[in-house]
Amino acid sequence: MKIKFSVSLIFLISLYVYAAPASHTGRYYYVDSNAGDDRNTGLSIESPWKTIRKLNSIHFSPGDTILLCAGALFSGRLAVKGSGTADKPIVLSSYGEGPLPVIAAAGQHSEALLLKNCEFWEVTNLEITNTHPKIAERRYGIRVASWNFGTMDHIYLKDLYIHDVSGDIFKKDRWEGHGILWENGGRLKRSNFNDLRIENCRLERTDRTGIGGSSPYRHKSGVWFPSTNVVIRNNYLEDIGGDGIKVFGCDGALVEYNIVKNASQRNDGYCCGIWPFASDNTIIQYNEVSGMRGTVDGYAFDADFDTRNTLFQYNYSHDNEGGFMFVFTPRPSEHNEGTIVRYNISVNDGTRIFSIGGPVKNVQIYNNSIITGEGMVVQSLLISPAEHHGRLYYPDDISIKNNIFLTRGIGQFVQNIAPVDANGLYTGVPGIGETKRFVLESNLLFGNNFWVPATGKNFSGDPMITFAQENMIGYLAGLYTLENGSPCIGTGLYIEGNGGKDFAGNDVEDELSPDIGAVQYVNDTRN
Q: Fewer Cβ neighbours under 10 Å: the N or C end of the chain?
């Protein structure tokens, strides 16, 4: 059974309305590469400047607005100077009718647009590219840098089209290529970001990473200086060379309403759709990830190491070659604690569904709906130890409750007993190894599920799911809802702090036994 949908989850469940930009009282500058002249005043549409070289020579002031002419092509790198204020940010955008103005670095510069050590900037309605026949390290579309600066406030990147960035495809953190990179650090002064927003952007063919960050500040280093109020929302990423969205060095980042389609296309190594690293309290919700290639990773989502309290909820994952969810740390000193995975839907994800590796702690996986098609052989649950200094470290405190595993092919619940092979595949045998405090309870397993650990009462039988049709009613009205008489109704276990809402926005009643799966039964008449 292969289940496909032509209408995107994200645009059916959310119509996001953006706030109008703040008022500006500074000067307006106009730039037109076709009709402009750098000897002009630049202060009117009739007297525009011509080049971004001219812009690079100007130190802008609070409230200024820089407008690039629609349809114009600007070669080189725009490296802005100056800062706005909270009530007078500086705006970089476009004017006129026609295609977005293009800034094309053509591989001659590390980035096409650089915002370094400047704050209160809002960048909108531009096309950015940085392509060259030869890939190179540190090649980006946009780079935002806070370096020996302190806290860099209020950087908004909105409604941008970023494409064809031929950066290094190998995993090298900030040295690898990015469509958008934010990086902070420096030896002289701790530096970070506050109020960084990346919204409503389209990224295509950016290598290696679509949107990502880099920071030297980690719990392990003893210096924790995270970026705050980071929001990555409503972006569309397609045909990405490696990772889709990587949250790095943040506390409380919000990643929502994004689509990552066909990432990890030009990298055979470690790549995932959306994942945090060295970040705490990350919320990843209402995203759709599909078409991840490869089995070394190839997961839709990943809670990587040096993370705490990561929440994955209301996401839709489908047709990812490596699997749905990876929770991992390689050693006890690289903490991974408090991951929650709830109210997500996974359809036809391959290889591994839930992969839990190393000494991670306190993982809660509940009320997800997992559907795999005919002919698929997957590891529905894979437990893997991590070896460190000759010792094997297993997960601790793993709770898997109230999930639907609808398996048309073969699903295996296994542990790994051998080193991973070159393709990232594990040798799976029954059992959970030396995993401590493990519970698999009150799940409904239908189909060919093998070697299910006997750690609690689970259910069998047809979950009686109504599959959504392709119509404009949308996923919230009909995706994977339970039919009357389903054995999933009212048989789940109460989960403290369950979030209160299911995948479809229905209430999850605390005082009742919840339903099993990502979507509660909407015609419930229980009192």
A: C
